[in-house]
Amino acid sequence: MTCLPFIFGRKTTSAPKRDPDIDEELSGIQNVRLYSYKELKLASDNFSPSNKIGEGGFGSVYKGLLKDGKVAAIKVLSDESRQGVKEFLTEINVFSEIQHENLVELYGCCVEGNQRILVYNYLENNSLAQTLLGGGHSNVYFNWRTRTRICIGVARGLAFLHEEVTPHIVHRDIKASNILLDKDLSPKISDFGLAKLIPSYMTHVSTRVAGTIGYLAPEYAIRGQLTRKADIYSFGVLIVEIISGRSNTNTLLPKGNQYILETTWELYERRELIELVDISLNGEFDAEEACKFLKIGLLCTQSNPKIRPSMSCVVKMLTGEMDVDESNLTKPGLISDFMDLKIREQNSNDIKTSSSSKDTTISLPASGAENTTFTVNYDQSF
């Protein structure tokens, strides 16, 4: 294996060719191992299709056996990847300094030639999107206790990022496909390519809008003002998905039932939240606890971000250490309202489209594409 002296503290006979755009950044990272392309190629049996365990806009993920005997998930970024050099470095920087039982573990990376590869611990049960929300294409059964453990685990991982890490980390793309599951179905938050660091003295950062339609907090999607509350909104959507077994958006359903938050609020108003619980549970669940979890989901997705609880409070509510206060509960920020607003803005002469009209257009994807991550600028100043 070819290694770099600054990583291992010893000389090497032949250093790999490095991408000049990221060489300087990598030199300051102390806790990430650098793999050679040859080693990862060998580990994955020449990136064999039989070892492919995932694919997306970033490229492909392969299962591989490393020299030290560890089984790894090898994420190979394609040349056309949405995750550029900046996102690649962000992911490495985030993981080089933190560890938590509910975050995936980064083993190392490869930056040889034009190759950009991330190496993670392998998780046996893929993602929530594929196993729970995959439309019956998985043989993994999620009983009630497993679902509650997943909700609590993700909440704890986010609370760690938001409140225990300095500067605070906002993930920006919390969704079912970024929650991976180990052999025991314990959740691990993954894919930190869009993460932002927010110093404790700042209330928000203004940035390009990035994330996934259906999970985007309205105030962030419209104004580009990012706070930890954006992640909390996404978590609220996720918790409803986990309890219901349904994706947040399904354009094949009748118009009034396409967005799960709308359905959740309607059922809450009628005091029929229990109707939303996944029928695959066959009634084997704690009805009071199920309604409590759905109410927490509504609290996390409030239109007013100030009303949304912190993630540490969410953990306490989920575990029963804190009561769920419904006194200020109002209609959540809905994706349909957000889309209507964008349409009105696009038809207005006031919107800033003179220099780059493509940056102000956003449209709902077709069914099955809801989990596509995108980035878009609404204001040139972001």
UniProtKB/TrEMBL annotation:
Matching PROSITE patterns: PROTEIN_KINASE_ATP (PS00107), PROTEIN_KINASE_DOM (PS50011), PROTEIN_KINASE_ST (PS00108)
SUPFAM superfamilies: Protein kinase-like (PK-like) (SSF56112)
Binding site for ATP: 75
UniProt-recorded Gene Ontology molecular function terms: ATP binding; protein serine/threonine kinase activity
Pfam family, one: Pkinase
Record key words, sorted: ATP-binding, Kinase, Nucleotide-binding, Serine/threonine-protein kinase, Transferase
Stored InterPro entries: CR_Ser/Thr_kinase, Kinase-like_dom_sf, Prot_kinase_dom, Protein_kinase_ATP_BS, Ser/Thr_kinase_AS
Domain Protein kinase: 47-329
Gene3D superfamilies in UniProt: Phosphorylase Kinase, domain 1 (3.30.200.20), Transferase(Phosphotransferase) domain 1 (1.10.510.10)
Recorded family membership: Belongs to the protein kinase superfamily.
Protein name: Cold-responsive protein kinase 1
Protein species of origin: Arachis duranensis
